[in-house]
Write a structure and sequence with these properties.
Helix 1 packs antiparallel against helix 2. This protein is an alpha+beta fold. The chain has helices spanning 2-17, 21-33, and strands at residues 44-49, 54-60, 66-68, 74-77, 83-84. The chain has one domain (2-84). Strand 3 (66-68) and strand 4 (74-77) form a beta hairpin. The strands form 2 sheets. The protein has a 3-stranded antiparallel beta sheet, with helices on one face. Strands 3-4 form a two-stranded antiparallel sheet.
Length: 88
């Protein structure tokens, strides 16, 4: 629980001052890197929603996303990039 508090605190500070989602992730990484032990790990996904209805995503410590079929079987790697979240 203590590590989670460090991560959230670092995120809140970085999100209020960093200009880009990648900068937020870098600042959080710098803080967390100074406090984690050999057995600790943190994974996170940081997303930034833009006015043009796209989303920038930075994944930190996560394996690559995978598509899953209706039968819960891997359907290969998922597409990664900027996503327009405006549904037709």
């Amino acid at each position: 629980m203590q590590l989670a508090a460090v991560v959230l605190g670092a995120f809140r500070r970085a999100a209020s001052t960093a200009p880009l989602v990648g900068c937020v992730a870098n600042e959080v990484d710098a803080v967390v890197g100074g406090v984690v032990g050999d057995e600790d790990f943190v994974t996170a996904v940081v997303a930034e929603f833009h006015p043009d209805r796209t989303v920038a995503v930075v994944k930190c410590g996560h394996p690559p996303p995978v598509k899953v079929s209706a039968r819960w079987r891997s359907a290969g790697p998922a597409w990664v990039g900027t996503v327009n979240y405006d549904r037709p």
